[in-house]
């Protein structure tokens, strides 16, 4: 998957999570760029049909109430760059810090942790266990907690 496609998918996911329409995101981006994006421009960006400037990435992050590194997150195993394909680990590492000895800042560390938690929680076995737990709780009622 090309980098632009990965970013586009993340923009679409974040927009949908915030229950924004294409037009609403275009208007929100326009507040930072001085001119709104059309519905079609947002759609093209979400499909990976455009390269993004630093200014556009900043406006998108502000409009979606997220960080620029969060726009780059992807579950894809490989990312295609013009010169070669890189692994998701290489891709994420480049986006978040310079090398393995450079500590992550708090925001980067939180982004990585949340992404990893999301991957773990989406595993089919955990999803099934959560459903079983909800069904069991409905049958017996919520457990009371006893505080010391």
TrEMBL record:
Domain HTH cro/C1-type: 11-71
Coiled-coil region(s): none
Source species, domain of life: Bacteria
InterPro entries: Cro/C1-type_HTH, Lambda_DNA-bd_dom_sf
SMART domains named among the record's database cross-references: HTH_XRE
Signal sequence bounds: none
Protein name: Helix-turn-helix transcriptional regulator
């Amino acid at each position: 998957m090309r980098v632009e496609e990965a970013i586009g998918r993340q923009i679409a996911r974040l927009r949908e999570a915030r229950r924004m329409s294409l037009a609403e995101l275009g208007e929100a981006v326009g507040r930072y760029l001085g001119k709104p994006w059309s519905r079609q421009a947002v759609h093209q960006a979400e499909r990976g049909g455009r390269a993004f400037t630093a200014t556009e990435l900043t406006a998108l992050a502000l409009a979606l109430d997220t960080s620029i590194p969060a726009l780059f997150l992807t579950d894809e195993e490989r990312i295609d760059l013009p010169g070669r394909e890189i692994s998701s680990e290489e891709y994420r590492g480049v986006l978040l810090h310079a090398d393995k000895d450079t500590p992550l800042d708090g925001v980067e560390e939180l982004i990585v942790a949340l992404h990893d938690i999301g991957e773990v929680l989406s595993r089919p076995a955990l999803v099934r266990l959560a459903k079983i737990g909800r069904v069991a709780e409905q049958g017996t009622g919520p457990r009371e907690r006893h505080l010391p």
